[in-house]
Each structure stands twice: as C-alpha cells, then as structure tokens.
What does this fold into?
Amino acid sequence: MSNDRYVTVWTFDHRSQTDLIVNVLQSEGITARLLNDHLVGVDWMKANAFGGVKVEVPESLADTAIAIIRDLPLGGANASTGSTTIDGEDGCMACGANFPEDESACPSCGWTYESPEAE
It folds into this structure.
C-alpha cells in the first residue's frame, strides 16, 4: 500500500469540512491528504480556478473512502462526489467509479451518457 499513488475521491468548494473528512478516513485506517486547501483557504472565491479542495487517498482504498464519505451527514456542504480520476479518466456521474473514455457505460454501475429511448 505504500507504493499506491494517490487519487482524488472528493472535492469541496470550501475547506470548512475537509478536516472532518480526513479525520474520519484516518480513523478508519485510510491515509488521506488534502490538495489546494491552503490556496482555497486564502482566496476561496478562486476555488474553481484551483479545482477546489481535493481529498486524496491511496488508489487501492479509493472505493472504500468514497463509501465512507457518502455515509457522512455533510449537510449543506458544497461537495462533488468522488471522481477517482486516474490518468485523466473521468469519474462516473452516478457512482464516481473510473469511467474510461472508450467505454459507453460505467463498468461499476452501468450508467451511461446516452439518453433513454422515448417510449
């Protein structure tokens, strides 16, 4: 696990709850780190330019971390679901799993960008 690369599992517009998220993940045995937390803390109005405050965990624990975060009562937090973007792949908009560009449906949940056929 020490050779795992870190992936982003959750993104926040503000830093207010990121420390809580990191503490919860660490209490579950998952090493977590924050990116852009100081930049957003200094100038929160530019959070979008920095990509928000990102919570990162080792790649092998990303799915577990996303499940833990989803179970937390985040209230009115402005957060984005975990896109475990690895090597530029986008995350599924439904479940956050890796969604390679060459796939037509999410390999984890089956979600697709295609609109349903009108009946």
Observations:
- Residues 75-79, 81-89 have pLDDT under 50 and may be disordered.
